[in-house]
Every structure is written in C-alpha cells, then in structure tokens.
Amino acid sequence: MSLDTTLSPNVGSWLQNATSIVMKLNDGEDFTTLLTATNGFILLGTVLAGYVIRLSVKGSQTRPGEPPLLPGAVPLLGHALKFGSDSNGLYENARDWSPNAEPVSLSLMGKRVYLLLNARDVNAGWRAKSLSFDPVCEWGLSTMFGMSVEGVKQMGTDPDGLGGMTENQHAFWRDALAPGDALNLITQRFMNQLDSDLADYERSVRAAGSVTAELRDWTRTRLGIQSTNAFAGKALLEKDPKMLHKLAIWDLDFYLLSIGLPKWMLSRANKNLESMIQTWIDINRTGSSEVYHPMMRRLEMMEVRGASEWDKGSANFCLWMATQANALPIEFWFVYQIALNKSLQPTLLAEIGPAFDENNKIVNLNHLLHNAPLLNSIYWESLRYTSGAVSVREVLEDTVINGYTFYAGSMVMSPMRILNFSKDTFGPDANDFVPDRFVRPHNPEKGQYNPGIKVVKSFGGGVTLCPGRHFAGNEILAFTASILQRFKIELVEGQKIAYPLTSAPVVGTFPADREVFVRLSPRN
Description:
The chain is α+β, with helices and mostly antiparallel strands. It is built from 23 helices and ten strands. Keywords: Heme, Iron, Membrane, Metal-binding, Monooxygenase, Oxidoreductase, Transmembrane, Transmembrane helix.
C-alpha cells in the first residue's frame, strides 16, 4: 500500500462535523458508532466566516476549459457535505451525471477538485508530470503520521546524493520488494512466521475442538502478527502487544487526523498515534537485527539528514502501517467469500493441496501463485469489489487532459472503485461479487466478461503503483491457503450477508457493514 490512497492536504481540511465527532472521539466512541456517526454539520467559526464566503464565490465559478461543475453544490460549502458523509456516493453521482464519464469538477469549501472517472483519463493523469504526488506525501507524513514539520523538510534534502526521501521512496521500495531475491527474502521471513503461528494456533483449536471468532478481528490478529513479525521481528509486539489494536483505531482516526485540527481537539486520536510512534522509537534504539533491513536502511538515510528520534519513529510507523493497512481488511473479505461460497471449497482444496507437505506446511508457494486459478480469481475479485482507494495529485501547473484544463493549485482525485465497477469493462454483473470472474470464459455476447486482472486498479498506478503489491499477494494467498488447508471455516448460522460499507472513509479497503462470526474446526 502507498500513500497514493489517502486524502489530499487540501481536501482533508474540509472534512466533517468537527465539533460532534471530536467530542465523540474524545469520549471514546466505539467502532460502530464511529462508522455511522452523522456527518454533514461543519463548524464554521466566526473568524473563518468571511474567508469561507470569499472562497464560496470563487468555488461556484468555472474557468475557461475547466471540467463542468457537478450540480448540487450548496452555498459556502459546495459539495463538502456530501463529500464528508459519503465521498464514494459523490463519485458515483459524478460518474452517472457526466457523459462518457468525462472529468468533473467539485467545489469543496472553495477549493477546486477534479475527478477522473474513466481509465483513459486516469492513465493520462498518472503520466502527467505536472500532477504531483509529492506534496500529498509530505502533507500526510506530518498530518496523519505525526512527523514534525522540520522532519518533513529534512526528508526533502539530499546530503548523500540519493535524492530527497519523499521523491525516491517509491523507487526505493520498488527495488526492496521487487520480484527476485528481494521479494523472496521478505516472503521467506513471512512464511517462517506463518508456519510457526498457525501450528501453535492449530494445536489450541484441536484442544478445544472448535473455536468461534469474529472474522475481522481474527484475520487482523493472525495475519497481523505474522506480517508484523516478518518486518519488525517479534520485539515490536512483545514491546506493545496492543499495537495491532492501536493500528485498527488509527485506521478509523486517519480521516479525522487529516482535518488538521489542533491536537487538543483530537486528543485520543493523537495519544494513540503517539503511543505507536514511541514504541517504534524504543525498537529503533535497540538497533534490533530482526527488523527488515530496508527499514533500517531508511533510518540510516534519515540520520544523515539529521532526523530526530521522534521523526525516525514516525517514519517506521508509517512503513509498518503500509504493510498492514490494506492486507488485513482484504484478508477478511477473501476468507469471508470462501466461507460464504462454501460450494467452492472442494475445488479450492484440490487446487491448493500440492503446495503442502504432510504437516500442512507450504513447500511450493509458486503452485499457489500460478496453479490455483480459482483461489487467485477470488483474491482479485476481493480486491476489485472492496477497494475504496483514491489516487490523489496536486496540479503544479496548468494541464490539459481529455481537452479539459486542470488549473494549477487544484487537486485531482481518481477513485479506483469507479473503474473497478465499470460495466463496460466488467460486464452487467460488475456490481456483484463473482468468485470465478477471472477464470470464466470471456463471452460478452452472453453478458459474461473476463477482462483479466490487469484492469483491476486497487493498487493505484503510475509512478505511485503500490511497490508492495507482489508481497501482498504472496502473504494473502499463502495465509488463506494455509487456513483453508488446516481448518474447516463455517459461517455461524443466522447471519445476514455482509457488504462493503462504502460510505466509510478508508485508507484503501472498505470494512464490512456488520460483524461476521465464523466457526473454525480442525480439517483432519
């Protein structure tokens, strides 16, 4: 996962319901309340009123050649109310309103935002050097990951001739996680943790006979432990066993942190973030040999730039978050669909069997990657169906895309879900979860489309194409196959079907709209 899926520095400052949500957060509202909190009343302080009025006049006007403004903007706020309460719904409204899904303008508290809604325009945006991700990255490091303003500036310096760290981050991680020796190294670290953790867990399930668990929490815990230990060694979770729980809270808090309010107004969210940064500071101080080497290499680069311990802790928290933020919720959806479509399990078991030895240990990961077509189809369909990723760029200079002028100082947003649900690409069943979508015959005459996995845009694209996508596929396929090989996974009876909660603000993957309980029992 990359920062490409987060909000922009300018968009983030217009979001929602500052007073009531802040009070709820400081009172410790639970997960369900946070996801369903009423958005829409934005606090306009007296001091800001004149400024907002001036911006609202500017925001209601379009400039020559600019994409047309989506109807429905209200005085002062523009489209901010809808954006704050259901941004995905706003993107869908724009797609349905625009002929041929051409670019559309939004006005958010006077700021112009351009939406790219078809694959051709999105690709053009990714290619345009005048649309930059770097300002978004720099803003996110400070606003959502707790790095100091000075630390962000230091990241942009080049004392070692390697370029600014914000500029070279994707190239660095692309190489550190590239297929070949680099990918094999981190994958083997993960596989060691996978085998050890699941062997211990299987013994506990056998002793109990069966275990009932809430699936989101279960997948987050099991895969989170294994992946965290692979990147950070066991010291991180030994230092703070609640780190994964705190990360789940941060995942809910990130859009509130992006508002940019004073820390005292988001005291609980900031205390949670600061606690995780402090744990990483403690790990960094030990110089643990268990921490994945490229993470330590980034710390060395920060030291050359004079970074503080706090900023180095913030940087490693950011990197660790990137390994978890999308993999864990995708794993939930992957396992849920397998449990929901239980008639597919015999085929899946036959596919994955040759990858395991007699002790249920994976001895041939390549078999899972290349010779388990239904397993891979469900994985890619899970990515397509649940992604809420939005690619964000800032317009550095006036730019023309598809005949429209994008003016400097504005933002560009490309919601991947719009592409992933295109009926032109995926057919009339694009709104449905189809487990065999990527293995079925391509027969448009019968309304059956199989466009291939390359058109799934959940990992972003362009220079910010997620550098960890290969490892994510390795760990998720290995984990899913392993638990399917070891356990019978059954949905507890009487539950309604879970769907993505598309109104929820997310880093990249939508959560379920309800809890899901499963029963696990030993398969043999």
